Fold this sequence. Notes:
This protein is an alpha/beta fold. The protein contains 14 helices and 9 strands. The protein has helices spanning 4-15, 20-33, 51-56, 67-70, 81-84, 107-115, 152-162, 178-181, 187-190, 193-199, 212-222, 235-242, 249-257, 261-288, and strands at residues 42-45, 60-61, 91-93, 99-104, 119-124, 138-143, 163-174, 225-232, 295-301. The strands form 2 sheets. The protein has a 7-stranded mixed sheet, sandwiched between helices. Helix 2 (20-33) crosses helix 14. The termini are far apart.
Amino acid sequence: MPPVADAFLNAHLNLQWLRPESAVCDAVASELIAKCQFDRPCLDLGCGNGLFSFVTAGGTFIEYYDWYRNAEPRQPDMYDAVRMLPRPAWVARRPTYGMTVGFDVKESLLMQAAALNFYDEVRLGDANRPLPFADETFATVFSNILSWVTNAPGTLTEIFRALRRGGRAALCLPTERFAEYCISYRWREQESTLLKLLNGGRADTMQWCLPWAELGQLVRRVGFRVIDRLEYWSPLTARVWDISLRPLSPVLVSLVGRLGETERAAAKRDWIEIVRPLGVELLALERASTAPGAYQLLYLERP
């Protein structure tokens, strides 16, 4: 029986086959998050297209499903909804649970999330603003986008308010070592054009990153009790993710988009056959690492 993270690697790699470094890093996160209890009603705050949470809950797609084919835009910022939405026939295994609400700021991503039939409903909104939910609505809140919000204390307070007493929040956040390991995020201080090109503007999306001493004080000041805190993404894992195929991915997506269905499916199988052993080895090294992580999972409770 393969380790759980290897099963997650297969599922994420089937989706993100042209970005294998992201598939590996998502597999690491899924393995930890899957140990949390997702009581309903539950909120996925910043759900995006829903695929990460769908896979983390145990969902998988058949080999034929190719997110890169279905996500190709016809025009900048305009999506072909028919080609892009996951179809029920493409689901190989349904998740072991569903989530009540998927919440995100991008309508095009919510269209994809809704098509998964994983969320009871999807809601359009901005996590930087007061959440459109009544006090004590949810038993569980999950989010991996909090480093992107501009007002961390405000958003944490809103999560606390929306949770029931005894409810829990599973939050994924970078640690203070994130920029130490992911060197492209230091392109300004290094005055490096190479690092800037490798970063591709990602540094601009990270609004804050606090040492645990400060972050721990913040979550306790909001009112949370810390159940657990787990660090992940070793220096090697973080660097592989940072120095990635991202700069090449637009060209790769374009190239495979010119292939017919049979050729494209064969290219995907060949690609995965090459990169999967690398991912398995990287996961093994990640599990064996004792170094502090670039990311952390906070498991919090509202008393």
